[in-house]
TrEMBL record:
Signal peptide: none annotated. It comes from the Bacteria. It comes from Citrobacter amalonaticus. It holds the Pfam family Hydrolase_3. Coiled coil: none annotated. CDD domains: HAD_Pase (cd07507). SUPFAM superfamilies: HAD-like. This is Mannosyl-3-phosphoglycerate phosphatase-related protein.
């Protein structure tokens, strides 16, 4: 059993993990959120969403001022108490959104790949795709270091597109609903490890880390943790961690925020 008095850092995915994948509700996790706040334990949101979108969600969850990992690790919002950090308030890993857009538009023109990016459509279309309101959908377009798209071509063509991206120092990452193009050096695990190091310097001791996620794209983040909660999800493949991973894993029976609550209670006993 873990103690809430340990130097803890908790990293969590949003959709399908802390937030219900359909309604975006998090009420089943509310008691734990209050407990973590009371104990001053940083809860770090980690997602493919933009920082603008995540800062809004962070505020709704009462987590403002804490770091967050956006755009699959390509963007890291630093703790608001670290204004002297040279990258304050945000770190960007590698290529910018504009640079990546230019590259993929060139590939699309040259090889006629079929895909639709968030930049190709208006807010109403994104609202339809995601079920978000117009105001929220406008925040999903404020990418700083990645491009989000819907792939509309064959698997073979996707392999070709991926190879061409890799040759140019970019990677193609599958999220829960969309695909994302980002710098090859970026990742949720790299972003989490960077934050763990920064807290270690502040705290003068190694943080104990707990991660929660529900999708295959959360695996690198969870492998970087000491303890992982795999929330039961909709994904057919599920979350498979590397066999040599030393993380202690708990798989929940319940989905979404109910599974989040179940996993936290498993490692820490009742909130
Ligand atoms: Mg998820």
């Amino acid at each position: 059993m873990l103690s809430l008095d340990a130097p803890l850092l908790i990293f969590t995915d949003l959709d399908g993990t802390l937030l219900d994948s359909h309604t975006y509700d998090w009420q089943p996790a509310a008691a734990w959120l209050a407990r973590l706040r009371e104990k001053n334990i940083p809860l770090i949101l980690c997602s493919s969403k933009t920082a603008a979108e995540m800062l809004h969600i962070q505020k709704l969850l009462g987590l403002q001022g804490l770091p967050l990992i956006a755009e699959n690790g390509a963007v890291v919002e630093l703790d608001s108490r670290w204004p002297t950090h040279p990258d304050f308030p945000r770190q960007i890993a590698g290529a910018s959104h504009a640079e990546i857009s230019a590259v993929i538009n060139k590939l699309r023109t040259r090889s006629s790949f079929k895909f639709t990016t968030f930049d190709d459509v208006d807010e109403s279309t994104i609202a339809e795709w995601t079920g978000l309101t117009h105001a929220q959908a406008s925040l999903t377009r404020l990418h700083e270091a990645s491009v989000t798209l819907i792939w509309r071509d064959s698997d073979d063509r996707m392999a070709d597109f991926t190879r061409q991206l890799n040759d140019l120092g970019l990677q193609f990452v599958q999220g829960a609903r969309f695909w994302h193009v980002l710098d090859a050096s970026a990742g949720k695990d790299q972003a989490a490890n960077g934050l763990i190091d920064l807290y270690q310097r502040q705290w003068k001791r190694r943080p104990v880390t707990v991660g929660l996620g529900d999708g295959p794209n959360d695996a690198p983040l969870l492998e970087a943790m000491d303890y992982a909660v795999i929330v039961k999800g909709l994904s057919r493949e599920g979350v498979i961690l590397r066999p040599d991973s030393t993380v202690q894993v708990y798989r929940t029976q319940r989905e979404g925020p109910e599974g989040w609550d179940e996993g936290m209670t498993h490692f820490f006993a009742t909130p």
